[in-house]
Amino acid sequence: MTAVLHTSDPVLTAFADDVGTDGPVAIEGARTRWSLGGPLDDSARILTAPTGVVEYTPEEMIVTVRAGTTVADLHSELATKGQWTALPERGGTVGGAVAVGQNDFRRPARGEVRTSVLQVRYVSAEGRIVSGGGPTVKNVSGFDIPRLITGSLGTLGCIAEVILRTNPIPAIERWFASDDTDPFAVHAALLAPGAILWDGTTTTVQLVGHGVDVDADVTVLTSHGSFVEVEPPEAPSGERWSLAPADLPAVPELGIGPFVAEVGVGIVHAATPQVREPLDPGVRLIHERMKNEFDPAGRLNPGRVVGAH
Amino acid sequence: MSLIERLRSTLPGGPPAPSGDPLLDELRVALSPDRVKVDGAQRSLLGKDASVFDGGNSGPICYPTSTDEVAAIMRIAEAHGRAVVPRGAGTGLAGGAIPLGGPVVIAVTKMNKILEIDEENGVAWVEPGVINLDLTRHLQPLGYHFAPDPSSQQVCTIGGNVANNSGGPHCLAYGVTNAHVAALEIVTAEGEIVMLGGLDAEPDGYDLRGVFVGSEGTLGITTKIAVTLTRNRPAVRTLLLSFESTRDAANTVSGVVAAGIVPAAMEVMDQRITQAVENYVNAGYPTDAGAVLLAEVDGPEAGIDIDAERIRDIGLENNATDVRFAQDDAERAALWKGRKTAFGAVAQIAPDYYLHDTVVPRSKLADVLDEIYAIADRHDVLVMNVFHAGDGNLHPLLIFDGREPGVLDRIHAAGGDIITASLDAGGVLSGEHGIGVEKQKYMDRLFTDDDLDHQNRLRRAFDPVCRANPGKVLPMGHSCADIQHLRSVPAEVWG
Ligand SMILES: Cc1cc2nc3c(=O)[nH]c(=O)nc-3n(C[C@H](O)[C@H](O)[C@H](O)COP(=O)(O)OP(=O)(O)OC[C@H]3O[C@@H](n4cnc5c(N)ncnc54)[C@H](O)[C@@H]3O)c2cc1C
Question: What is the pTM for the complete model shown?
Fold first, then answer.
């Protein structure tokens, strides 16, 4: 009897052989977030993950895709059926986006990366193909390996393939900007904005949904300030601060230079890096044990540490 | 001074009388004598949960009122080499809260305070014993609710929801519990108090919060939870679609999903359960329909009818014999009351039921349902179907009278076939009830040995000696020291 999640896909098996069973190894995506977690040890052999959309079932709203596929390629295929995923389009690969776990700057509209990974297959430190989660949109069968792998920066396993939840691209997407508005009042007033960005002066709001809903939201916006319709903004770049939503009004006082804050979410994009607190000792202990359980010899992505500052 | 002497010396009313059992004495000093129970009635009551499985043997049952007390219990249990089992309301259906091997049971029902509503950060901090519906009732006037709404929401606890990653009819659009937890304070089996996740947008480190949700009490106990607040929707439309067959209802569900609509809820009930519900609460369901689909959309008023009308049209394309829109809140509430009391309603038909829980791809719903009826016939048991159709989450309800000799064997055989049919259709073992003791033996049908080994490693990172809720989730042979551990408890010790 073969387990349902068993795979004999030769492409994945070949990747597992590449990873092998010993020696330091790291997977490169498009190197858009290559420096996260610290410098990679020189000793590491650098591999790339397999590519390709394996199966796309738009009517189930799921897609099986290999980790080396670029997010752009994935999304251009999904767009043919009016869908996309929560993965941010920043020039990177699917595996990289999952390993990093950071969300798109329009998180309310796009959803969270961590809730969109339904199943993951990775090559373990022992060179074995391991699967976690499952192909359905709802699942509590055993421990949540997809959650663990998402955001683990390749330190627990080499991501080979994922099943992602897809979402319909909203019928209408429009952007509005205003220089005389309180972004937090706008956030409180709108039911489900796609994104609210604020740079200390300008509030830029994405409205999504049915045309009539967007029209109704425009009326709400104009009651808060003088909004004009604008082109969709570029994704903010630079360093990424993770704050609580209630911390955002005080960001201008932090003296961190130009910034773009994601109102209601808590991410701030700025030129200077955030000085993060070290992990709480109790959390660090679980981290160390986790790494030790999954990669006792420390061969996966050596030099990189998740949550180390 | 020993721990027990030190603890005793600080007690205002003097030490409780020694019982002769050091474990019990220490627990009584750490809590208070009246919050550590060992009487037979309590132990037999808390030996079971809402599942059909035989009760286990509990050791002392503790009712802590604070995180520090939970940590003290953990350390005392560890010093005595005893396992611990977290427990909420005991409504779990997979046997997750059944104590195996005489563990110390930690019932969190007295930790039931809503600690803080933090609107700016969009969260509420609650203790684990808060009842799901109590939280939503508390939030409603402020314009919010807690999105997961299991049918058991009048009694189940938020801690239990976290442990089982529980869902409910309205989790289709909003997601199950895991999407609604920002941070968790936990106490590990070693007695460490640890905060997982956080209120900031992307907390550092591995997503241990996400990993803890759904871990069924095996990674420790949660003592404080930051749940996210979901805004109440300004407009709601509720539709009741009637069909001649469950197949047509299921095809409608697949059609709605395929059309890119994500309704707030899509629940299907077959004719048998609809009739039982109608007899029970008079909710206004048609008793002559082969199946009904209860669908709900919510959102801003302006566009609300667009999706509602598309759902109606997809229903009509799939042979709906009638489509009714709830005219007011009273009618909507009656329909939902019917749906949520479905399990109570079957009590009129037979005294016992076994509620199954599997998930299949939505396009396979109709085929798997047909197969489930055939399986029930084959094993000569009565099955009713009421389920979260929108996410493919089947809930076949096997109805029986436990006094009939041999009936449980047939029930379990039918259940096994239903699981097999779901897996064969590309599904998974559980959508919201968890694995517990119910589905351990099926885990290797879904996962390979390597997969299970990695789940076990994840578990050991939290609890290296497997003292939190041993004997659950992972099948025997995979659950680290579970088996030795359970065997190491001498028979004469509690239970
Ligand atoms: C009639 C009926 C209808 C139901 N409908 C639904 C439904 O629609 N959707 C659904 O998802 N479920 C449903 N359930 C199942 C059940 O109600 C849920 O699983 C619920 O979340 C369990 O909560 P509880 O407080 O009763 O937990 P318990 O049964 O006491 O415990 C369940 C598991 O959680 C662990 N646990 C409890 N508290 C903690 C804690 N603080 N920290 C760590 N672990 C803990 C226990 O060890 C156990 O493994 C239903 C049950 C019944 C009887």
Answer: 0.95
